[in-house]
Design goal:
It comes from Psychrobacter aquaticus CMS 56. The protein has helices at residues 23-39, 51-58, 60-65, 79-90, 102-111, 133-137, 152-159, 183-190, 205-209, 223-233, 246-268, 273-293, 304-315, 320-329, 334-341, 346-361, 366-376, 381-391, 407-430, and strands at residues 71-75, 94-98, 128-130, 142-145, 167-170, 196-200, 214-219, 238-243. The protein contains 19 helices and eight strands. The protein has an eight-stranded mixed beta sheet with strand order 3-2-1-4-5-6-7-8, with helices on both faces. The protein is an alpha/beta fold. Helix 11 crosses helix 16. Residues 1-34, 36-53 and 55-61 have low confidence and may be disordered.
């Protein structure tokens, strides 16, 4: 497989939704779309390949025929990290799964199962295990990092002394608390000389372990690295597509967690298919709107790492974020819901980060702001949803019509509606 640049030649020839817009403004809007859609693929600075990467490129045919030449480390023994390590080992790669807990490593090596996260699935006999970080990452070709976002920077700091040409691929979806840094940003901060990529897509670990047909996206500026990841993980049941839009692919994986919480919350109220479709469509608009402001190609959000991951996460009860939202919709507070889940739900932190960033930069994201009000301002979910229906969503397809309502207007409308509801409640209570 090879990567391909997105084409923007067929964007919006039918502007029937813009009848009330002058031709000059129509042309301006379309020009803006094309410019935004193409800017991430033009003038991209290419990284100088490392010695390891050059060897991978030179021997690419041999890698595909004999993937044992690829030496891989997977850091993090959660469900997804384990599933990807198992897939690589099954493909014949020299694969080590690193887990911090020594007892857990011994148990996995003995039973060939990850009893905590994937208890019902036998892991490949060729998969190796280690709790020694230095031993796990030394002399490897690619290091895949699948630890929670809160531990990502610490993990990079820990492996820094042992880096001697390895490439890094992030499997972690989310943003660092308080900094708004994506995992690629943290890699550039901590390991600036390292070639890196990010992987994201609709990748529910249990379905991958069941050999249900699935796919993912590896995004990197480095074509040899993209090819190496494809060689390591591609199989009859798992396809690996390539992209050079690192920012867009990574944002898709991070932002979709927000809307999985919203969908889980909606499911608690037994909403219909119309409501679910509305949430998904508006969520995609928010994601692409935010992505463009961050420098991503909006067309990336129409791919696997965007709408694909959004759909899978928002429609599956296997999703941790969906389950968190469902518990919130049933009246549980956020602390109790997180405790009951027992795993990291990246969307909770992402809501706070994106709400603050969108508010600061004036990015119109009504669903995100509504979820923030529920989780961090203790507002009733149903009341917030009703206010959102009254105040939000003034245009349909993103980048076709300009939005006529800002964040400030939305906030004022919701507060006004909330005050009106509270006044009615007081009147009722006094009678």
């Amino acid at each position: 497989m090879t990567s391909s640049n997105n084409s923007n030649k067929d964007i919006g020839n039918d502007n029937s939704d813009m009848d009330n817009t002058t031709p000059e403004k129509q042309n301006s809007l379309l020009a803006g779309i094309i410019e935004r859609a193409s800017k991430s693929g033009i003038g991209r600075k290419k990284l100088n390949p490392s010695a390891v990467e050059s060897a991978v490129a030179k021997n690419m045919a041999d890698i595909h025929n004999s993937p044992t030449k690829l030496r891989l480390a997977f850091l993090g023994g959660g469900s997804f990290g384990t599933a990807m390590a198992n897939l690589a080992a099954r493909n014949g790669c020299d694969t080590t799964l690193w887990v911090r807990n020594k007892r857990a490593v011994k148990a996995m090596a003995k039973t060939q199962t990850n009893k905590k996260y994937l208890p019902s699935y036998k892991l490949d006999d060729r998969l190796k295990y280690s709790h020694d970080l230095a031993m796990a990452v030394k002399d490897k070709d690619i290091i895949f990092i699948a630890v929670p976002g809160l531990a990502f920077r610490e993990t990079l700091k820990s492996i820094a002394p042992f880096i001697s040409g390895q490439s890094i691929v992030s499997l972690t979806k989310g943003m660092e608390k308080d900094t708004f840094a994506l995992m690629s940003d943290i890699i550039k901060d901590e390991l600036p000389e390292v070639n890196f990529g990010v992987m994201s897509g609709p990748n529910l670990a249990i379905e991958i372990m069941k050999n249900m047909p699935s796919a993912t996206v590896i995004a990197s500026d480095s074509e040899p690295l993209r090819h190496a990841v494809q060689a390591a993980l591609h199989s009859a049941f798992f396809r690996v597509f390539a992209s050079d839009d690192v920012k867009g692919v990574e944002l898709g994986g991070a932002l979709k967690n927000i809307y999985a919480i919203a969908m889980g919350m909606a499911a608690a109220y037994d909403v219909g298919e119309n409501t679910k479709a509305m949430i998904l469509t508006c969520a995609l608009a928010e994601m692409s709107r935010f992505g463009v402001e961050a420098g991503a190609n909006p067309l990336t959000f129409l791919g696997l790492s965007g709408v694909g991951d959004l759909y899978a996460t928002c429609s599956s009860e296997l999703s941790r974020n969906y389950r968190i939202g469902n518990m919130l919709g049933r009246g549980m507070n956020i602390d109790a819901a997180v405790k009951k889940l027992g795993q990291t739900a990246e969307g909770v932190n992402t809501i706070q980060q994106v709400h603050e960033k969108a508010t600061k930069d004036g990015i119109y994201m009504p669903i995100t702001h509504a979820l923030y009000a529920v989780i961090y301002e203790d507002k009733a979910a149903l009341g917030v949803a009703l206010h959102l229906m009254e105040a939000g969503f003034r245009s349909d397809v993103e980048f076709v019509m300009a939005h006529d309502h800002s964040n400030a207007t939305l906030t004022a409308q919701m507060k006004s509606s909330n005050s009106h509801t509270e006044d009615e409640k007081d009147d009722t209570d006094s009678k």
